[in-house]
TrEMBL record:
Keyword GTP-binding: no
Name the record gives this protein: Putative Zinc finger, RanBP2-type
Record keywords, A-Z: Metal-binding, Zinc, Zinc-finger
Coiled coil: none
A single GO cellular-component term on record: cytoplasm
GO MF annotation, one: mRNA binding
Length: 174
């Protein structure tokens, strides 16, 4: 749950506790202009999606829009805005990601691993193209979350939504 003072990383959009001075996930230092991401107890406030900060990035969570894309080069998996021609995290070009099995925001629940493009996709022999994924791991189906969760979790570690066996699929399930 979000609490007063929690903040979203400008770089990877991970929600961090107020006490953190740098992002738990990527190590990016907390900026003075980071906006509070939650509403405290009532479910969270929205600041209008992307574009309201001086960094031109999302101000709340993973706000995926049509045309946005996920980098699949070298198992990067970073979410990139539609306007980007290269991945903000690894620098790979959008074209390299697309030819390597990339995809856009029309399928947000499949983030973090490609389909087709060399046999590494969903159901591709039991191995995920995203490092750290294991059999039974699942993606949260709550709109705007889509977070990777380990197989033993019965609720999403990020938003506490219950595991939904129909929509939160593992990359190993067909």
């Amino acid at each position: 749950m979000n609490r007063p003072g929690d903040w979203n990383c400008r770089t990877c959009k991970h929600m961090n506790f107020q006490r953190r001075e740098s992002c738990q996930r990527c190590g990016e230092p907390r900026g003075a202009t980071d906006l509070y991401s939650g509403g405290g107890g009532g479910g969270g406030a929205s600041f209008g999606g992307r574009g309201s900060s001086s960094f031109g990035t999302f101000t709340t969570g993973p706000d995926v829009r049509p045309g946005d894309w996920y980098c699949t080069v070298a198992n990067c998996g970073a979410h990139n805005f539609a306007s980007r021609s290269s991945c903000f995290k690894c620098g790979a070009s959008k074209e390299d990601s697309i030819t390597g099995g990339g995809f856009d925001a029309d399928m947000p629940r499949m983030r973090g691993f490609g389909f087709g493009g060399g046999g590494g996709g969903v159901g591709g022999g039991g191995s995920s193209t995203h490092p750290g994924w294991k059999s039974g791991d699942w993606l949260c189906s709550r709109s705007g979350c889509n977070e990777h969760n380990f197989a033993n979790r019965m609720e999403c570690y990020r938003c506490n939504a219950p595991r939904d066996s129909n929509t939160a699929r593992s990359p190993y399930q067909s």
